[in-house]
Automatic annotation (TrEMBL):
Keywords: DNA-binding, Transcription, Transcription regulation. Residues 214-279 form the HTH luxR-type domain. It comes from Paraburkholderia unamae. The keyword Cell membrane does not apply. This is LuxR family transcriptional regulator. InterPro entries: Sig_transdc_resp-reg_C-effctor, Tscrpt_reg_LuxR_C, WH-like_DNA-bd_sf.
Length: 284
């Protein structure tokens, strides 16, 4: 059966994309191929590393050429509340990841969603993930002002094998690949140290919480209270936190009561503002 012109055009674009693997416009070319089939509004390619801020491989430019302050705030600290980042660190796997898969039950009620995710003109997001090792994952994110349809998601899923395969080939040409062995070794030491204290997934977030409480003269939180803060700010309901930590609903409520009393706050929004409001204002 003879292929039509669209098929031939698609294969041509894939060929040019392969040719661009070692070039500076690889990620831009990738977006141009995909956007022929699914509409999206912004994109970025990042390296997620446990307990470290994401590194930028490439990102879509702002329409007016200015710096995206909200994205800078995300890179500085708000990534810690990103369900995609949390999922990539806790359950690294290659392939397509959708917002519906990783978002906690109360995600759209969080200040992170209202002040960053939604404010950054994102109605929906998907990511193509490629774990580099146990601590690092390269992600290619496509954000849209609208919600992706079932057809959109199916199209992304169909593209995932070759997108991830090309991402794997691209690794050798990314800046973070230089000295990767030394970086990975340093990361392993840091992660092992955190694990020895029972804080593998909370170490980076805990450091921020402790620094802010010390600077503001507030009472320090326990390790379990810090876990509850992170999960709560990330969008997990009280019941979901209880299930995740394997404790009772009432125990979570008690932890929240103690957290609010220690920090002198009375709501979830005040809790978010204590640790992230300066970043939010910077991106307003």
């Amino acid at each position: 059966m003879e292929s039509d012109w669209q098929d031939r055009a698609f294969h041509h674009h894939i060929a040019t994309l392969i040719d661009a693997l070692d070039g500076p416009d690889f990620w831009t070319r990738m977006t141009r191929v995909i956007e022929r089939f699914v509409a999206f509004d912004n994109w970025c390619a990042l390296l997620f590393t446990r307990e470290r801020a994401p590194l930028v491989c490439a990102e879509s430019p702002m329409p007016d050429g200015t710096v995206d302050l909200l994205f800078r705030a995300y890179l500085e600290a708000m990534y810690q509340l990103d369900p995609f980042y949390i999922n990539a660190c806790e359950k690294p796997r290659a392939g397509l990841v959708t917002l519906a898969e990783v978002a906690p039950d109360n995600f759209r009620m969080t200040d992170y969603y209202q002040r960053y995710f939604k404010s950054n003109i994102i109605g929906d997001e998907v990511q193509f993930n490629l774990p580099v090792d146990n601590e690092r994952t390269v992600i290619f994110s496509l954000g849209a002002k609208h919600h992706y349809t079932e057809r959109d998601i199916a199209q992304f899923a169909m593209f995932a094998p070759w997108v991830v395969a090309l991402m794997k080939q691209r690794l050798a040409y990314e800046h973070f690949a230089q000295g990767a062995a030394e970086v990975a070794a340093a990361d392993r030491v840091e992660v092992q140290s955190a694990a020895s204290h029972g804080q593998l997934s909370e170490a980076g977030f805990a450091s921020r919480i402790e620094a802010v409480t010390q600077q503001s003269g507030r009472v320090a939180l326990t390790a379990r209270e810090i876990e509850v803060v992170r999960l709560s700010l990330s969008g997990f309901s009280t019941r979901a936190i209880a299930e995740r930590l394997d404790i009772s609903f009432e125990t979570v409520r008690a932890h929240k009561k103690h957290i609010y009393a220690k920090l002198g706050v009375s709501s979830q929004s005040e809790l978010f503002a204590l640790f992230y409001e300066p970043l939010g204002r910077a991106g307003a």
